[in-house]
Amino acid sequence: MDNQMPRKKVLSCxxxxxxxxxxxxxxxxxxxxxxxxxxxxxxxxxxxxxxTVRQDPKMLKKQIMEMYAMLLALGIDREKSIIFVxxxxxxxxxxxxxxxxxxxxxxxxxxxxxxxxSSKHADNVNVGLFSYPVLMAADILLYKADFVPVGxxxxxxxxxxxxxxxxxxxxxxxxFTIPEPFIGKxxxxxxxxxxxxxxxxxxxxxxxxxxxxxxxxxxxxxxxKSAVTDSESCVRFDEANKxxxxxxxxxxxxCTGLSYEQIEKEFESKGYGDFKQKxxxxxxxxxxxxxxxxxxxxxxxxxxKECMKDGAEKATRIAQxxxxxxMKKVGYVQI
Length: 335
Ligand code: TRP
Fold this sequence. Notes:
- Helices cover 54% and strands 6% of the residues.
- It is mainly alpha-helical.
- The chain has a three-stranded parallel β-sheet. Strands 4-5 form a two-stranded parallel ribbon.
């Protein structure tokens, strides 16, 4: 990259709702580290978003610490990047309020995630759940992010962010950078080990269907061994007819860097037993460093809080600058 040019900015956040799965890792988190080598990256634990569904206070606190430790454990360079907790930077809530007033009820009503979640949590369809994408817009726009790595499920929220930013810029001039989805290396979509037609999900009631980032090596191997495949006994990539085997091949490819062709060759005359064992071992290897680092960090609350404080300070400096500009444009009195 040209050293004369300022680096492009990337922002992403993850909710502290339980240990991420192998799917979250291979599909998103692993890329966060790679991205941070080439961009000015800011990553946050989206703990304000988390309370749009009811959370137990003790659990929430624990999960925020754990998710933060997990982000540090990814090996992102903390001198170059910012890793922080959303609720430590009040500008997120402040900008979200302002943006609420530039967002239409109708456009929020059309968000598919709102429709899904409000039917799943019918007893708690709160206003925060409704305006969740506006808070997400605030997260992104405060840091003037050029790119946002998001999964397919968050694409619509990024589009609404662009709409809100364009609308605001249309009224007040060039305040916000219009963010684009980050199209990086093909982020793998990892499916359930028990039902490979479904996405791997940590909220799946069958724990054998997903691998948690903190699963022990023997658990990982065991879960891999019980993964659903087919009766053909041939390692071949064919998502339509062999979804289970194809999913394991994706996982193996992500962990080893091998192509599907190379994998097919490697297991040409071998059975599924050997194949699954090898995939399990590759996953164990892939997660080893992250797990070790996580287990070290999670015991050191003092250190984690120091990092949080440092991250919050850096994030606040950027966020405050944007917020002040916005407030000035809207017509607030600066003192
Ligand atoms: N809503 C996102 C999710 O659940 C998390 C999130 C919050 C986010 N703010 C963001 C993602 C800003 C990208 C950018 O996955």
